[in-house]
Amino acid sequence: MDPNVSDRLARFEERLQAELRSDVAFIEAIGEDLAGAGGKRLRPTLAFRAADLVGADPEQTMVVALAVELLHSASLLHDDLIDDADTRRGGVAAFRRYGNVVSVMSGDFMLARVLGLLAQSASPAFTQLMSETAARICEGEVLQFQAATLEAHDFATYRSVIEGKTAVLLAAALEGPAMLHGAPEGARTALRRFGMAYGRAFQMQDDRLDLLGDPALLGKPVGGDLREGKATYPVLALFDLGIEEPRAILRRHAREPGDVERVVALVREHGTDRRTAEAIAAEARAAIAALEIFPPSPARAALEALAQHELERIG
Questions:
Q1: Are the C-beta atoms of 226 and 250 separated by less than 8 Å?
Q2: Which residues, at least 6 apart from 66, have a Cβ–Cβ distance to it below 8 Å?
Q3: Average pLDDT in the chain
Q4: 87 - beta bridge partners?
Q5: Whole-prediction pTM value?
Q6: Whole-angstrom Cα distance, residue 234 to residue 268?
Q7: 203, 165 Cβ separation under 8 angstroms
Q8: Side-chain-side CA neighbours of residue 188 (13 Å)
Q9: pLDDT tens for each residue of 150-180
Q10: What is the pLDDT of residues 181-215, one digit of tens each?
Q11: 86 φ, ψ to 5°?
């Protein structure tokens, strides 16, 4: 990572810790855990790269980066509770340590901080963008639960879910700096298209690895989505071929010995692993193509490299 972005990420960490500060010990502890765990900080990095592409103001961009990351962190707290998760970023999930009420209210505390940042932006358009993004995140989570409950497994639903889970927030991180800067509509549209396509590729890749990855590299057993009744792209492609056996496995949440292994075998036997890889590659290439309106620059190259990484991760 170039020093310029590294410096901005260091300042971002300081500002994030300030936003998460609370006089209530449990809220403070959860905020410290989330800030300390860090993660890839993909969303603020995207915001800084987008700002470099359009020449956006650094302070306005920092507001975008903080608002997007806090919205993401709030969604993680809520998602862990919904998914009954045991861990988050290598540590114990917050609701396991502090209970449901503290975890949910800490997520709401972060959403309140997002509102404060939106007020700082003084931009009705950016506030509207973040409102729509938050709504899509909620819809994506509920739609995923609805699909598993009603066994309504299809590609259109899956696409809506992964856009809500991942892509819309990446797109907001990219479009936000351009919006606050007053960049031309074409630039904003291109950044949003990149974010949506890259976000779909990113989430599809995670879903592929959840089923077909190496547990030693993942740091967890494969088949987590099957155990939650979630049909991801490789399984949906089996249904598309008329192979119905995985429906029963999804219905029982892969509780019987050999369930996950059977689905993996079917995916490899019928080539839906390759079909999934091709779909990921198509999204990654669409993301790269979306940036063609911008002249060559280190910022454009850095964004293209992120999408290119998803092509390389296919193997």
A1: yes
A2: 12, 15, 16, 19, 44, 117
A3: 90
A4: 92
A5: 0.92
A6: 9
A7: yes
A8: 16
A9: 999 999 999 999 999 999 999 999 999 999 9
A10: 999 999 999 999 999 999 999 999 999 999 999 98
A11: -95, -35
Helix (H) or strand (E) holding 92: strand 91-92
Q: Which of 144, 184, 192, 147 is CA-nearest to residue 164?
A: 144
Q: Smallest Cα–Cα separation from 141: which of 230, 38, 271?
A: 230
Buried b (16+ CB within 10 A) or exposed e, 130-148: beebbebbebbbebbbebb
Amino acid at 40: K
Tokens of 260: 């996950």
> Which CA distances in Å does 250 have to 98, 149, 161, 204, 228?
31, 10, 17, 18, 8
Instruction: Give the pLDDT score at 315.
Output: 66
Q: Render the burial of 220-245: b for 16+ CB within 10 Å, e for the rest.
A: eebbbbbbbbbbbbbbbbbbeeebee
Q: What percent of the chain has pLDDT over 90?
A: 74
Are residues 234 and 272 in contact, defined by beta-carbon separation less than 8 angstroms?
A: yes
Per-residue pLDDT, 105: 80
Question: How would DSSP label each residue in 281-305?
Answer: HHHHHHHHHHGGGSPS-HHHHHHHH
The span from the CA of 315 to the CA of 299, in Å, is: 26
Residue with tokens 């290119």: 308
Q: How far is the C-alpha of 284 from the C-alpha of 302, rounded, in Å? A: 14
Residues 98, 55: Cα–Cα separation, whole Å:
43
Q: How far is CA 15 from CA 29, 107, 240, 292, in A?
A: 17, 18, 48, 33
Q: How far is CA 275 from the centre of its chain?
A: 22
